[in-house]
Amino acid sequence: MGIDAAAVHALRSETLDWRFKAIPGDAAGATVAEFLAGAPTLDRLGTPLLTLDAAALTHNIDLMARWTEDAGLTLAPHGKTTMAPALWQRQLDAGAYGISLANLPQLRVARAFGVQRLMLAGSLLDPAGLAWVGAELDADPRFSFLSWVDSAASVRLMDAALRAAGTVRPVEVCVELGAPGGRTGARDLREALEVGAAVRAAPTLRLAGTAGYEGALAHDASPESLDTVDAYLARLADLHDRLDHETTDPVLTAGGSAYFDRVAAVLGHLPTRVVLRSGAYVVHDDGFYRAISPFSRGVGKEPLRSAMYGFARVISRPEPGLALLDAGKRDLPFDEGLPEPHSVCGRGAGPVRGAAVTAVNDQHAFLSLAPGSDLAHGDVVRLGLSHPCTALDKWSLIPVVDGERVVDLVRTFFS
C-alpha cells in the first residue's frame, strides 16, 4: 500500500491531553482508541471546533479514484492539504500512486510513516535536506523520490550538496516549467531545455520528467482562465516531448484541485505517465473549491462534498443585529472566503436566516444577524468553510463524525 500501516494504526494509542484543543478535558489520560470506544457524541466536544464528515471523506476519495482511473491518469495527491497519514493511507489504499508534498519537514513526516513513493512539488536546495534525502534513498531501495528543478543554478547547488554528502543513488528530478507572472518554474522553453541539459550532465541527478502547476495562472473558471490554463498545459506537453529523459517511465505532472479536467483534456492522450497532484478534493469545501472544482462545473456525474465544518458558540450579543462567536483566524480558514453560517445546533438544525460572518479576528467571528433574530448567548452555530489547505493546519487532532457520533480522530502533523 506504500505506507507503514502499523505506524498509522499506532496513532490510536496516543494519549489525549491538553495539546489537542478539540478534545474535552475529561478525556485527558485516555488513548484515542479508549476515547472512541466510549461512543462519544458531538455535543461532548467544546468550541471552537473543526470536524470532518465521515461519509463525505469516503465519497470524495472514492469519486476521485474512479475519475482518475477512467481518465487514464495517475494520482499522487498533495498531502500538504491534510498532513494526515491516516488520510494518506486511505488515498493510497484507493489506488493513489504516491503522495506529493511541498517542503522538507513534510517529507520527513511522510518518511516517518513509511511512505514509499514521494514527489516534492518544488526544488530542494537545502544541503542538509539533500543529504537526508540521499541517505533515505541509499538506506531503502524501495523508496522512490522525485523532486523538481527550474534553473541551472539550482542543478549546480543540488549536485554539489549530494556530492558532498557522498550519496550513491541519484536523485530523480523533473524540469519545472512556469510562466510569466506565475510561481516557480523556468519561464520559457529555451531556459527549460537548458535546465534539462544541466540535469543530464550532473552525475548525482537523473532527468525523470516534466512538471508544472497551472493553478497559479488562474483563479476562476471563466473561458479566459480556462484558455490560459490550456495554453500553459500545451507548452508543458511540448517541453516534455523535447526533453531527453533518463528513465523508461518519465513523469509528466500537473493538476491541482481546480483544473484537473483540463489536465486530462490536454495531456491525457499523451504516451507517458501523467500524474495529477490534486489534494484539496479529499476534504473539499463550501467556498472556493465548491465553485471551481471540475465536478461542480459539470465534469462527471456527481460533485464532491464538503467534509469540513466549523462550530462556534455565541459569547456576546453586544448590539442588535450582531453576535460574536468564539472562533477566529486561529481556528478556521479565512483566506479564500469567510465562514458561512449553516445552522444552530440543537434547535432543529434550522438555517441561520439572514446571517453572515462579516469579519474575523484572531479568536472571534463577527456574525451579522437579521432584524429580530433570536440567536442567544450559548447557541452553537455550524459553519461552512472555504479552503481546506488553511483549515486543517490549525488543528492537530480532528474529530471525524457520522451524524452526531464521533467515529474517529485524525492526527495531523503540520509542525
TrEMBL record:
<dbReference type="InterPro" id="IPR029066">
    <property type="entry name" value="PLP-binding_barrel"/>
</dbReference>
<dbReference type="GO" id="GO:0016829">
    <property type="term" value="F:lyase activity"/>
</dbReference>
<dbReference type="Pfam" id="PF01168">
    <property type="entry name" value="Ala_racemase_N"/>
</dbReference>
<dbReference type="InterPro" id="IPR051466">
    <property type="entry name" value="D-amino_acid_metab_enzyme"/>
</dbReference>
<protein>
    <submittedName>
        <fullName>D-serine deaminase, pyridoxal phosphate-dependent</fullName>
    </submittedName>
</protein>
<dbReference type="Pfam" id="PF14031">
    <property type="entry name" value="D-ser_dehydrat"/>
</dbReference>
<feature type="domain" description="D-serine dehydratase-like">
    <location>
        <begin position="307"/>
        <end position="402"/>
    </location>
</feature>
<dbReference type="InterPro" id="IPR001608">
    <property type="entry name" value="Ala_racemase_N"/>
</dbReference>
<dbReference type="InterPro" id="IPR026956">
    <property type="entry name" value="D-ser_dehydrat-like_dom"/>
</dbReference>
<dbReference type="InterPro" id="IPR042208">
    <property type="entry name" value="D-ser_dehydrat-like_sf"/>
</dbReference>
<keyword id="KW-0456">Lyase</keyword>
<comment type="similarity">
    <text>Belongs to the DSD1 family.</text>
</comment>
